[in-house]
User: What shape does this take?
Amino acid sequence: MFLKLIFLTLFTQVIFANEILVSDNTLEKEILSSSEIYIDYDRNITFDSINTSDVTFKKNSKSILSFGYDPDFDVWIKFKLTNNTNQTIPKIIEYNNPLTTHVEFYQQKNKKYTKIQEGSFFIQKNRNSLNPIFYVTLNPKETKVYYIKVSSYITTLIVKLNLWEEKYFFKQEIKNQLVLTLFFGAMLLLALYNLLVYFFIKDISYLYYVLYVTGIMVHHSIYVGMTSLYIVPHDYVKYLFDFAMVIVTFPILALAFLTKYFLQVKKYPVWNKILNILLVVTFISIFVFVYATEYNNIRSVIPAILFIYLMCLTIYASIQRNRQAFIVLLGWVMLFIAGVSMYLSSLGIYNIYEHVPYIIEVVLISEALIFSVALTDKIKQLQKKKNEANMELILQKEIETIKLTHIVNKKTHNLKVALDEKELLLKELNHRVKNNMQTIVSLIRLQSKKIKDEKIKEMFMTIQNRINAMSHLHDLLYSQDNITYINAYDYFSLVVNELKKSYDNDIDINLTIETDLKVEQSVYCGLILNEMITNSFKYAFPNNIGKIDIYLSKIDDRYILKIEDNGIGYNSTTQTSTLGLILINTLSVDQLDGTIEVNSSNGVKVQITWK
Assistant: This one.
């Protein structure tokens, strides 16, 4: 009995070896580890010759196979699906790699095998999944053998096969595409936000960050298959892969320029020089190796060197206590994790996606957020420096204001001292002029006492009065602080009183003064007043009884001086050449630059107007 049991077990293993049992309850199943593999290094095997004796499939136990970038051979996969139930079972076979360029699926229909072409270069029009899928149907108690031939152009050749229940597959596919859409939406928002910031503050670091995020989105959309499915028309996907080197290198270059300007690498001359050299070499390599697929290993090394150098540069900047470098370094760590995860998965060494779904998307969005935070922190630091600079400027202004105030006060004091000295000197000058004139008047008065001729005495008196008219002005200037204007009433009163002392009569003199006079005009007005009153005293009143009215006013910018008497008047045609009248006319017209009007029909009325 025991021997029968052993025999039955061995027989079952032989019969059902590498068979994949399928049922309605099978929602998802990995089938590559239950398949057989054949590698066609010469690439001369066709499906018609696949079952010849020269082609030997080998059993495979791995759930994922990786053959590196652009392998120069074809990989054949053979597997059996068995339906032991009494129901017809539809299933989906998923080739779990959107980057593989050529995928040929062979399945048996009506005792003949038909081929379905798929892959990133041959996307079926009705396909709405990121990965290539194939629909299969197993009748009750039916076993079918399927073949898949894969090869890759430029991209990595990673083989992984899954068997799905149809509804369950599309439920997971919708979830997967929704997560990826949210990822790209978040990255797009980050790019647009920082682009707006760039337009506002014109910091080139933000533009390079936008280019970096854009490069990451383009690269990852190709990596997960969204570009070939939704963005680029199927017929043009192959042309997109010709620029794979540019697509891979572009975000690294953008990140290099971001690091260069964001960390202000110019502060580290040696590091900056090496970085410039690497940037030039990377640029050249893009254009030299863009179509040279035989140099895949060389052209992929250069961006890797640049990437590693940027990490070392950031570490060095962190050691130099560069504030932004600490944040950027965390971003580099996240980016390094993403890069290593993708590389290990591409080589088939370790598939992190099986343990942490969407790890790449999480890491990339985290890294982008970290760089965005670093840029935001830079704004805060710039604002802080600006505030500090403003405070320093305010303090400097206050210091300069104090200094300037001190200088102004000192100069004002000096000017005040000089002005006081000037006023003192002017007062002293006026005092001396007045004394000198009084001396002259005294000498004239002494001399006139010895003269017997009355006409000569009268002439000497007129001269004295003229000198006194000027002397009184200097006397007033000496006694007041303001030397620009003179009190016209006080001045005219002194002139009038001096004249009344000289001529003993009962003539009334009335003063109506409504304005002050400028000093330079006062002396002329005093002389004119002296001449007019003297003439009235001498000629207008034979009985020494009468009245003289004196008016001084200012209308707008014009001065008006009126001198009127009620005397006997004079004949203007015969008395125009006397010295007094000549002096009055000269002072009014030439010195004051004014006009003079004389009316002698009823007494004498003189009006002088000037600006």
Summary: The longest strand covers residues 545-555. Residues 359-449 form the longest helix (91 residues). Residues 182-381 form one domain.
